[in-house]
Write a structure and sequence with these properties.
By secondary structure, the chain is of the alpha+beta class. The chain has helices at residues 20-29, 66-69, 91-101, 130-136, 166-184, 197-229, 299-305, 308-314, 338-342; strands at 2-5, 10-13, 40-47, 54-59, 63-64, 75-82, 146-151, 157-163, 195-196, 233-245, 250-253, 255-257, 263-269, 273-279, 288-290, 319-320, 349-362. The longest helix has 33 residues, at 197-229.
Length: 364
């Protein structure tokens, strides 16, 4: 554990090493006067990010910086246990089903999904493109978003999807980033501009809708894929990692809730799969855990340093049409080793099992 001190606060970082850029961001955070009464805790997968470090958790009182959460409000993962076994999976059919029925990148649906009825678009205070948001429900997006089939230690099969609130969350976030900047003027840099009072109330309400949208976006993709494959879901749970926990007023950017007995999923990389864990409810950790392994290389570094042949060799045995040059920045080599995370999380979660990928899809 590392303690980082600023002029107004201090932060605990639950790892033994931290890159200089990330350290500077944490010091900056701890030197903001309006954060002097917050509890700041950094997760083991900490790395530099926009606004503040990815892996940040902090308590929220009367002010919040929209840029800290960022634009993909409610981004997270759904883990659905299926009624099938590995030997019964038609991987080519699955790949075709996803490509046909789940838009990725910037693409959206031709017809809105029935689950849009669950989202109160008309209550969003920020200006949004409602039609695009409706047609985006059930779409994957790009970047590090993915769809996987994973096999558990007992042979159980899990459908795991990582996605967020798509363009809706981006529109809401950018609106309140602008409101914060306009309100504070030059007194605070744009990246650190906060909202308070009625603006904060509106932001948190719109954020709650975006977070609900993100959860239904993931659920919709599960529904669409299972319908196409004639699968049934035996059980499922959702783990959010880019949001504000409105029940406990904790901001988590690249971090998850780990309340006592809460079941969560923590992805490692395309090759090694994900950890299914049970939270311990540790207040010293802000009741939080890491959201993944954490990047070892930036996307640009990975594109320069990782050879496609090495990426392909590392993914041997995993069915995928996504192991291509366009996704080399998401290769296992771009992320920290699983062992590094396992060594630092025992105070906040118990690892129940490691589920291993047998199929992977990424937008490219």
């Amino acid at each position: 554990m590392i303690e980082i001190k600023g002029t107004h606060n201090n932060a605990l970082v639950f790892t033994d090493t931290i890159e200089e850029t990330a350290k500077s961001q944490v010091e900056q955070l701890c030197s903001l006067p309006f954060l002097q009464d917050t509890k700041i805790r950094m997760m083991p997968d900490l790395h530099a990010g926009k606004g503040c470090t990815v892996g940040t958790t902090m308590t929220i009182t009367d002010k919040v910086v929209p840029n800290f959460v960022g634009v993909d409000l409610g981004c997270g993962m759904i883990c659905a246990k299926l009624d099938t076994r590995k030997e019964d999976v038609d991987f080519a059919k699955l790949d075709k089903t996803i490509k046909k029925n789940v838009p990725s990148g910037t693409r959206i649906r031709q017809k809105e999904h029935r689950n849009t009825i669950e989202i109160p678009f008309e209550e969003v205070a920020a200006p949004i493109n409602e039609q695009r948001a409706r047609l985006s429900l059930g779409s994957l997006g790009g970047g590090n978003h993915f769809i996987e089939l994973n096999e558990g230690e007992d042979g159980s099969i899990y459908l795991v999807i990582h996605s967020g609130s798509r363009n809706l969350g981006k529109q809401i976030a950018e609106h309140y980033q602008q409101v914060a900047a306009d309100t504070l003027g030059n007194s605070v840099s744009r990246d650190l501009a906060y909202v308070e009072g009625d603006n904060m109330k509106d932001y948190l309400y719109d954020l709650s809708i975006a977070q609900k949208y993100a959860a239904f976006n993931r659920k919709t993709m599960v529904d669409v894929i299972c319908r196409g494959m004639n699968w049934s879901v035996q059980s499922e749970f959702d783990t959010i990692h880019n949001y504000i926990d409105l029940d406990n007023m904790i901001l988590r950017k690249g971090a998850i809730s780990a309340q006592a007995d809460e079941i969560v999923i923590i992805p490692m990389n395309m090759r090694d799969g994900s950890l299914i864990c049970r939270g311990k409810g540790n207040p010293e950790w802000n009741y939080s855990g890491p959201h993944g392994a954490g990047r070892l290389m930036s996307r640009s570094q990975a594109r320069k340093q990782v050879a496609l042949e090495d990426f392909q060799a590392s993914m041997e045995g995993i069915w995928s049409t996504s192991v291509v040059s366009a996704t080399v920045d998401e290769s296992p080599f771009a992320y920290k080793a699983m062992e590094d995370i396992l060594a630092h999380i025992h105070d906040t979660v118990d690892v129940l099992e490691v589920i291993k990928p047998i199929y992977n899809y990424k937008a490219h």
